[in-house]
Design a protein that fits this description.
CATH class of the largest domain: Alpha Beta
Low-confidence stretches: none
CATH architecture of the largest domain: 3-Layer(aba) Sandwich
Number of domains: 2
Strand order of the largest sheet: 12-11-8-13-16-17-18-19
Strand content: 15-25%
Structural class: alpha/beta
CATH superfamily of the largest domain: CoaB-like
Shape: elongated
Bound molecules: cytidine-5'-monophosphate
CATH topology of the largest domain: Rossmann fold
Length: 408
């Protein structure tokens, strides 16, 4: 499965303002076209001092809109027509002046008039000297725009055209495309609550020791991010990991399998989709020593282990159960074990992956074999972020299919 970009077939008005970074907008046109977007370019007078309209017209394949009061342009694709045509308006580079003018709600040039007339989402990729970027007036203007729902992409930090170092560089064109693609993901999980477990669990033996495993939590965190991008309310119940919580995700930290179970069950009643990515310990010590176990080299040490509660099975047998997705991390016979687990645990879907030396845990790439009733699909080796989005697409499709059968 090669996933289609969320920008495929999307109409984007790309507005270029006066910044030395304007030369990058030529490449940006190409990169947006690569993912299937249709581009119309708008340029301010200042932008034309840095890059020619002819360049942008040739690359976009359409006339460039330059003037608000141009009698010819306004009679063809004028600012109101452009505003209606756009699924997204993207200003890249967005100069400090254009940001200030937008914050003021001015409408005295083509760009500001178009933004004022457009109901489409607006994203801006600022580019300016680092002192201009940190200037309180610029930051106030940006906050005003953010409060109105404008998405701010970047800026990056590093060497600047003026010779200074700092924050204010335009994001690279490919990064702008990737960030915009994430924002443009259809919000198919709007109003849904997705609960996800991630990471390992630690089962204490005594106050300083525990039984753990090598799970990094990366897959679970990537799945949580993908669910949030699709508009879901996301609760991420995470074992001990060193990862940053994705934007828009509510994270609850736990240590043991029992704590993870309790936290999941506290949320299960209002959960739409449950995804068990965590590598939960299958066994826990029967009792936890209150003091550190002393070593006695002349003796062997026996630990009595008892099974942990199976969280996935507990959710799958809950009264009004959510759509339940399990993971099967196996070192061998991946397909057979996964299919058996789908049946035994009464799951709606299971994602199987091979783990072992250098694959599965702690690495950034992964591959999955996903099974559901009477069907399956392979998601080939890809970065976990991409794989998580592809998996979320499958989950949403199967969740919708199951619900349409239930409701028919
Ligand atoms: O049976 P096995 O442990 O291989 O099943 C793996 C799946 O079950 C994973 O989705 C894992 O998160 C989940 N699981 C669980 N609670 C346990 C053990 C596994 O939710 N105690």
């Amino acid at each position: 499965m090669t996933s289609k970009s969320s920008l495929s077939g999307v109409n984007i008005v790309l507005a270029v303002t006066g910044s030395i970074a304007a030369y990058k907008s030529a490449d940006l046109v190409r990169r947006l076209q690569d993912v299937g977007a249709d581009i119309r370019v708008v340029m301010t007078n200042a932008a034309c001092e840095f890059i020619t309209p002819l360049t942008m017209q040739t690359l976009s394949g359409h006339p460039v809109a330059l003037d608000l009061l141009d009698i010819v342009q306004e009679s063809t694709m004028g600012h109101i027509t452009l505003a209606r045509w756009a699924d997204w308006v993207l200003i890249a580079p967005a100069s400090a002046d254009s940001i200030a003018r937008l914050a003021q709600g001015r409408t005295d040039d083509l760009l500001t008039a178009l933004c004022s007339a457009s109901e489409s989402p607006l994203a801006i990729a600022p580019a300016m000297n680092n002192k201009m970027w940190t200037n309180p007036a610029t930051q106030d203007n940006l906050q005003t725009l953010r409060n109105r729902g404008v998405q701010v992409l970047g800026p990056a930090r590093g060497e600047q055209a003026c010779g200074e170092q700092g924050e204010g560089r335009l994001l690279e064109p490919l990064d702008i495309v990737n960030e915009l693609a994430i924002l443009a993901v259809p919000k198919r999980l709007q109003g849904k609550h997705v609960v996800i477990t991630a990471g390992p669990t630690h089962e204490p033996i005594d106050p300083v020791r525990y039984i753990g495993n090598r799970s990094s939590g990366k897959m679970g965190f990537a799945v949580a991010k993908a669910a949030a991008e699709a508009g879901a309310k996301v609760t991420l119940v995470s074992g001990p990991v060193h990862l940053t919580t994705p934007t828009g995700v509510t994270r609850v930290n736990v240590e043991t399998a029992q704590q993870m179970h309790d936290e999941v069950m506290r949320n299960v009643a209002e959960c739409t989709i449950f995804i068990a990515c965590a590598a939960v310990a299958d066994y826990q010590p029967e009792s936890i020593e209150s003091c550190k176990i002393k070593k006695d080299r002349n003796d062997t040490l026996q630990l009595n282990l008892v099974p942990t509660t199976d969280i996935l099975s507990a959710v799958a047998s809950y009264g009004v159960k959510p759509f339940v997705v399990g993971f099967a991390a196996e070192t061998d016979n991946v397909v057979e074990y996964a299919q058996a687990k789908l049946e035994r645990k009464k799951l709606d879907m299971i994602a199987a992956n091979h783990v072992g030396e250098g694959v599965g845990f702690a690495v950034d790439d992964n591959a999955l074999h996903v099974f559901w009733q009477n069907s399956s699909q392979t998601l080939p080796l890809a970065p976990k972020s991409q794989l998580a989005r592809d998996l979320m697409t499958l989950i949403i499709e199967q969740y919708n299919a199951k619900n349409s059968i239930k409701n028919s």
